[in-house]
Amino acid sequence: MADFLTLYFFELKKLWKRKLVKIACACLFAVAVFTIISPLLGSYSLGAVTESNAEGVRKDAAYREALDGRLLNQDLLEEVYEAYGKVPYENGKYAGTEEYQQYARPYSAVFHQIRNLSGWNTEKVIAGTPKEEELYQRWNDVMKKSWQSNYLSEGEFSFWQSKKQEIEIPIRFEAISDGFYELLLGVGELGMINIFVVMLCLAGMFPEEHSQRTDQMLLCSKHGKRMLYSVKVAAGISFAAGISIGSSVLAIGIAYLLYGTQGFDAPFYLYITDYIYPITMGEAVLIAYAMALAACVITAVITMVLSELVHSSLATVSITTAVVVAGMFFNIPGKYRVTAQLWDCLPSRFAMVRMIFNTRMIPMPGGYLQAWQAVPMLYLLFGSVFVWIGRLAYDRYQVSGR
Amino acid sequence: MKNFWTLVRFELKKILSRKITWIAFGIVFTVMLAFGFYRTFVSHEVNGVRVTAHEEEMQAKAEEKKLAGRLVNDELLEDMFAAMATDEEASQPYRTLYNELLRDLCGSNTLALSRGSVEGAKEALGISPEEELIYAARRKQIEESLANQYLTEGEKEYWHNVLETEESVPWEYDYYQGVHFVWVAAYTAIVLIALMLAVCLSNLFAEEHQKKTDQLVLCARNGRKVLCRAKMTAGVLFTLGSTGLVLLATAVPCFITFGADGWHMSIQLIVPTSMVQMTFGEMILYTYAVAILASILYCSIILCCSELFRNSTVAVMAVIVVLVLVPMMVMVPYEYRVLSQLLDLNPINVIAIWSTMDFRLLPFFGGYLNVYQVAPVLYTVLAAAFFWIGSRAYLKFQVSGR
To answer: Which of A341, A353, A372, A361 lies closest to A159, judged by CA?
Structure first.
């Protein structure tokens, strides 16, 4: 065990000594910080308004706070429509007018909530009238349509219907701090960059034994090759987990400091209105970043095993980059249900809110698993299989002919 | 000739004898071919009959050709509104005109089109009845862009002069999907070409050091100088050949499946707010020429990095991945003028369709140059600079301490 740990720390030291690893991790952490603080940078000018983005964010947060806990019922709808009714819309750019700033902006969070629930664009909402029943009926219809476009099965439909029954109508509007939105928007980008960093840093872990000719020497060492494989895999996985957790903690920490945690207990369907699984915003953020961690770790495993199979760090990076770019450019239409779901499990595609919190589920005996419950298990299964394949390749490799 | 061409041939043979070169080229070539031809393979059922996407597109083309040669003016738009009020079949020829050109010009004011008439739309957009709807709406949008892009006074004056002196010849309409796809496909092509070149060429200089032949070369008859030029020439020749073939695979399938209709049409049919006075044909030729220049620039960066990061080909890949992905994923707001303009000068953004709507200029000896004038010169100069840096690094490298 002591030897295992010695080798393990040695492998980690080898990793961290490389300039590429230091630069890549520095960029990753810089992006994590920038993603969260970017809404506060700069300023904007719109008609009668010129303010810094930070001021704007603070103002809107205060307005949201004032409406926190109000029921989204006929009374509130009428207030919102009355306020928006005072704004002139002739030129299509109403947000810069004084009337908007004075009357409508305090209600803009609720207005956007109405827009999200109904799926109507701004113009259609403005042109309509406040009707509580119509709004919730519309939400119903939009949800059903989205379930249909996701090619959900009958069983899944009933599952979501039953979840819908559990929601009390009228729902309560809850103020959610911008931090949650930024974290959920940023998880995809951060996840992608994490994956690239892991690919670039770990692609050389096994090939360097061959290119530096130390693979022959290992055969003469105390534990031979066998222990070193487990050490390298453990070091790679902990490196990937470390940088993923590090960047996530940094992002979440900064979001907490800058924006606060208001809205941690707010229901998630206030944000993604067709995903009505009973989780809160806070739980959703933690789940999303846990999924990014899982995606990072499985990428590490795939990279290391692939690098041992092809014996070349360049080929490994090329193959993994090709798969990531393919994942970015290509979508499989939803009607090929299983293929599309499997394609969406690709680590570079999965670490995004729309994939993690997807109404398509995985059927199990006795019920359904959500994507964020099933995919980590899938990664664990595939990861174990890959590690086993890698071990076979590593153990059987014959050093010869040099 | 100091065996220069023998060395070039030998270097090319080295590049072409690697499996990974053929795999990378094969994948990129096939993907671009598939992009062009995929409509022939994708089909769905319409009224019980299986119809390919290609057949549907040809039907739409036949409808739109009914408008070929007509001038885009109020008369055409009145016919369009009349047809849309009648029935779906009569409005088929006008679908693209409505969904693309008109929607673009109405911008955020989507209610303008719901008025159902040219007069109604003019009223909603604040255009006087004497002016032509399309061209007046275009002028308004351009004025807005000029205000939003943080331009200097000199630049605004420049563009106002262009607006005044622009030929107000009405555009001619024709089916343009073929030339449109050929134009936009160049964006995907250049991303994949850059990654392919990184995979194929990153070893060119690095392997001399990794395989320890750099010492041997010093004893060779012509030394390092000739070899350096030979390697760079081989790299450039490989780049030109592979890029040429990939670009052909990009353009030819689109021309075959859609036809070259619209070659002589003005690009304003698809980017109405652009003040670049080119036809689709000219734009395609220009874009593809810039793509070739850009590929040589990427080649020069890869060869330079290959020499500078001689111990790590993965680092070379990392540089290219960053150069390619950052412009795709990061949008710097116009506010940060210098950074935003620098990022928008990179080949990925210049080749993209949206750079036609970039009104920022570069001051040049009392006048101004726009991005389309600057890009070819900049890439040539930068490529020469990178080749020079790479060759200096190679020629000054001291073989020692092994």
So the answer is: A361
